[in-house]
């Protein structure tokens, strides 16, 4: 305390005033007049009010501007942005300064960006291979959005692909449940830092997204969650580059471990889905980007839907990275006609989406088609039913959260999504294709870009399917695709 440097003292005998160092000191005792430096001054009532108000205003601005860094400013994200990767390094130790934003005087408290978990606890999966943590970070508006919307978007991601959530969160305006996977201390550390970046830079993520976490028993972190802050040179318009720089510091030993161990996709899908709080769930992968206005259109459509066993298919297209994200269905069809977009997995594995019948789906953009008026208005409607369902069909769909869960025996690639869709079909679900909404995936895929280990995992999961299809038959006593008979 600086007792010999008392500042301006307020009315009514207030005992505290602000010093030049920013601390507060005990002012000289005097109740009849204002004192400055402990010397009396006779001032008029107007001067008293002005000085008192100025002191309060100055203190307010000092508190708000203290330690503020321009690096925390969030830049607007263009809707058609195809993200890239770049960022400065995070501080290794917890800094003493607090970040603040020039956008608003109300900043996100640091503790709200710290994962709300104790790694010694958690919930084990059925085989005790993975430990689950629900709602480790929750967006400020997630609960209210869940009450005002009929459908949530549920998705999952590993650490290195998490940048994709930026564009997803800017397109999807309802609640989002994200299940994350992190193995070991290095990935856990990167994940925590990047979550701070996402929540500080992007209001839609801070407001709408609930994050849950899954970690493997054989690679559990040894350190509890920490508090991190953004560096001064953070770039809020390069989420992919930001993450890449963090991921590049992960050791080769950790990378080798990840290649040798399968990614638990179905565990994560179940985790993301069951943390949704709405009746309907739109389950996707993190790099599947919803079309504009999909949330509102889908929410309006579901208000009149009355089908417990309906799966509403949202068609998915691959997009050339040279184009902007299509503003609407008509624009998507135009770029597809130029070869800059095509149905998802069309060249890699056509059966993945073939039953959606894209040829029929694109017809309503032409005048005279019965669905043309709906397309022009952007109103969501059932374009057609899936009539040629086949095994290996893997649509992204919206359904009530009573659908069968994803079987967690299937890990890695192959038979992870299509087995769940197959069980839905055996259970009597109808698949209905919606228009004019859609989803996009950046990049025109080819078989050359697929690593050999994916086929190895696919063959391993095929063996699990021989048992799975018999269990499904016993559960529903139906075999509409003759899958069990074919194996006899």
Automatic annotation (TrEMBL):
InterPro entries the record matches: B4GAT1
Substrates-to-products reaction catalysed: 3-O-[beta-D-Xyl-(1->4)-Rib-ol-P-Rib-ol-P-3-beta-D-GalNAc-(1->3)-beta-D-GlcNAc-(1->4)-(O-6-P-alpha-D-Man)]-Thr-[protein] + UDP-alpha-D-glucuronate = 3-O-[beta-D-GlcA-(1->3)-beta-D-Xyl-(1->4)-Rib-ol-P-Rib-ol-P-3-beta-D-GalNAc-(1->3)-beta-D-GlcNAc-(1->4)-(O-6-P-alpha-D-Man)]-Thr-[protein] + UDP + H(+)
Membrane-traversing stretches: 43-63
Required co-factors: Mn(2+)
Subcellular location: Golgi apparatus membrane
Keywords linked to the UniProt accession: Glycoprotein, Glycosyltransferase, Golgi apparatus, Manganese, Membrane, Metal-binding, Signal-anchor, Transferase, Transmembrane, Transmembrane helix
Domain of life of the native organism: Eukaryota
Pathway(s) annotated for this protein in UniProt: Protein modification; protein glycosylation
Protein name: Beta-1,4-glucuronyltransferase 1
Species of provenance: Cephus cinctus
